[in-house]
Amino acid sequence: MTLFSLIIALLLEQVRPLPVKHVVLDPLAALSGALVSRFNDGQAQHGRLAWVLVVVLGTVGTALAHYLLWEGHPLLAFAFNVAVLYLTMGFRHESHFFTDIHLALRMGELDRARELLGEWRGRSYRDASSSEVARLAIEQALVAAHRNVFGVAFWFVILPGPSGAVMYRLARFFAEDWGQRTDPEFGEFGRFARRAFEAIDWVPVRLTAASFSIVGNFEDAIYCWRTQAVLWPDRSSAILLSSGGGALGVRLGMPIHESGEIVDRPELGQGDEADADHMQSTVGLVWRALLVCLFMLALLGLAGWVGG
């Protein structure tokens, strides 16, 4: 049931993409604002309490709902799995940006590609070269693929029913919404959310990076992962980008023009300068990695069935 739930949710999301902003992000933003208004006094312990209330209770509630539906009929639980995965997982949550940037670069419309990249990342790239645009789009796509698909799928498999998918999606949202805020009035409220997601994502990040390595250039991916990931400020992203860049044979990181400044960044990956061809290769890498993960899940299920 786990494997079929994942496959059907992915197919459904490809056929009918979810308007994730209106259906998922806007309600979560409203909930976040209410929790901040109620609990935030700048102290970390109150941020921890708010996180536990929403993430832990949401996870337990989802597991309980799945159990009750299973007791009613397994098909109800199966439909619940698919529905929750459809809300929490999918390539199409952000892939339209990547697709449109890729097309713009293919057509030679650099200004259009810069504009789309700015919408995606929330910054200005009016001075970025075509290679920088392709490089940043690949970086964003690798991280987004992990957080929108691989990370969600991992916890869906580990915890009862779709409760793991809910936990990962909620933890990720509050890590981004609270954990990345640095304004003084917000204080330490988001510190626990940031650290909790780092712990939750520790294993999934490494499994995703391993999948990239297996389906790409394995030796280069592992070499870049081991030698370059420590150079990047965000360790989770560094593991994904260094392994992904090595697997693709493309250089990521490096200085970029962003919001009117030159931002110095260490080099990740190795090989050629990024371009539209490497963007196409990125799509293939991600899909191959997903197929490997689904195949391994199928083998585990078959082994359990035979052993039982």
UniProtKB/TrEMBL annotation:
Residues annotated as transmembrane: 49-68, 152-171, 285-306
Membrane disposition: Multi-pass membrane protein
GO biological process, one term: cobalamin biosynthetic process
Localization per record: Cell membrane
Domain of life per record: Bacteria
Record keyword Transmembrane helix present: yes
GO CC entries: plasma membrane
A molecular-function term among this protein's GO annotations: threonine-phosphate decarboxylase activity
Cited function: Converts cobyric acid to cobinamide by the addition of aminopropanol on the F carboxylic group.
HAMAP family documented for this protein: CobD_CbiB (MF_00024)
Family according to the record: Belongs to the CobD/CbiB family.
UniProt protein name: Cobalamin biosynthesis protein CobD
Organism: Thauera propionica
